[in-house]
Amino acid sequence: MLYHAYEFQKLMLTGAGMIANQQSKWLTNPMNPAGYIPNMDMLSSALEVFAHSAEPRGKPEFGIKQCFINDVAHQVEEAIEARKAFGQLKHFKRSAPDGTAIEGDPKLLIIAPMSGHFATLLRGTVERMIPSHDVWITDWRDARDVPTSDGTFDLNDYVNYIIEFLEYLGPNTHLLAVCQPSVPALAAAAIMGRDKNACRPKTLTMMGGPIDTRKCPTAVNTMAVDRPHSWFKNTVIATVPAHYSGAGRSVYPGFMQLASFMSMNLGNHMKSHWEMFKHLVSGDEESADATKDFYDEYRSVCDMTSEFYLQTVDVVFQRHLLPDSKFEHEGRLVKMSDITDTAILAIEGERDDISGIGQTKAALEITTSLDEKHKKYLLAEGAGHYGIFNGKKWRNNIAPVVEQWILDHNDAA
Fold first, then answer.
1. What average pLDDT does the segment 283-288 reach?
2. Helix pair angle (40-54, 2-27), 10° resolution
3. What is the distance between the alpha carbons of residues 69 and 408, in angstroms, rounded to a whole number?
4. Does pTM top 0.85 for this prediction?
5. pLDDT digits (tens, 9 = 90+) for 144-202
6. Distance of CA 71 to the CA centre of its chain
7. 89: which DSSP letter?
8. Tens digit of pLDDT for each residue in 70-104?
């Protein structure tokens, strides 16, 4: 009933939003005499803010058409290179002005979070790395669109997907995991190291990842440990309604995750919408559009399979199996000591309120067989969780460190 109640509310708000949008446009139409009444611009702006908030959203596009290499514009084309039931491998293929493909740069596989948002949340990450790397990304599907006949997907499947994608790309591939996938990416590196897999990642960069959530716990961590596992199963899990391809699938809905994220910083979100309103009233469309663009992405959410969500809560946040070397994958313990030659870069944000300081750095402490020259830590001053992988701090301060780390280990023996 939870999902059906949300769908009914969404339908009502969508209708109200469409009416508000039309009213806003009518009030600003120069042919409408009522538009010249004092304060009508304020009413029009208020209606526009509401309409934007109520607008239904689907999966966004990356929309990256070009990049600049040595100040020369190069074309970028998105291509799906491998498809699986719950995700696909997307390649950002670059070509010079004469159509020649760009080759020879380090292969970089970006593991996007499966945490309620689409892979496009990392658009800024991809955009920054494209000029200097052959960039690939995991493009996860919305679980509500995956038929139940395609089976289930849990944390172990996530690890397998990473391994299979790395094997598809071949040796000397670099891995970058943003937030949640740091855990399965680290597990995949350990498994591939144990098996001496030739396609194990050359480097693994983890950014704001919950490797050990006992270190500097945040509100997210506290919520996960203060409630029993049964609470999550009985309270936040829902069934996909009949009009979706994944009808009948048990999921953790994206709208639940969005509500959780919004409530964590409700004051900031209210302030952002108030600022958007003021920009619209003053005619500053550019600033208002920047806020709209952010929330267009932020509110575009997708569902996760219930088995993946519940296992993540249990393994990562409640029992901490990976840092304690108790996590089992396909019947075998995943040991961090099996990572011997994958160089690890751990990045944390000074103001991260989702993954606290020390949680990602823990990866450097538990990989006891890895030489110190293959380990590096970066604390990004002034960066929050989102700022680690997007925005000015990412582009100017963090990305250069990642680039140099990859370059230093790209051809290392």
1. 79
2. 150
3. 20
4. yes
5. 999 999 999 999 999 999 999 999 999 999 999 999 999 999 999 999 999 999 999 99
6. 29
7. E
8. 889 999 999 999 999 999 999 999 999 888 888 88
> Are the CB atoms for 87 and 138 separated by under 8 Å?
yes
Q: Residue 168 in contact with residue 102, Cβ under 8 Å?
A: no
Place of tokens 């969404």: 10
Which helix (H) or strand (E) element contains residue 246?
none
At 403, which amino acid appears? E
- Backbone torsions φ then ψ of 261, nearest 5 degrees: -65, -45
Q: How far apart are CA 323 and CA 260, in angstroms?
A: 26
Question: What pLDDT, on the 0 to 100 scale, is given for residue 12?
Answer: 73
Residue 118: closest CA among 161, 178, 71, 77: 178
What is the rounded distance in angstroms from the CA atom of residue 287 to the CA atom of residue 294? 11
H/E stretch holding 232 reads helix 229-235
Contact 112, 121 (CB under 8 A): yes
Give the whole-angstrom CA distance, residue 231 versus residue 306.
Answer: 13
Residues 6+ apart with CB under 8 A from 8: none
For 101-162, list the strands marked E by DSSP. 107-111, 134-140
d(CA 291, CA 381): 24
Percentages of the chain per state (helix, strand, coil), in multiples of 5: 45, 20, 35
Backbone torsions φ then ψ of 399, nearest 5 degrees: -55, -40
d(CA 249, CA 370): 41
Helix-helix angle 285-298:266-282, to 10 degrees: 150
| Length in residues, the chain | 413
Instruction: Starting at the earlier edge strand, list the strands of the sheet with 238-239.
Output: 238-239, 250-252, 304-305
What's the one-letter identity of residue 401? V
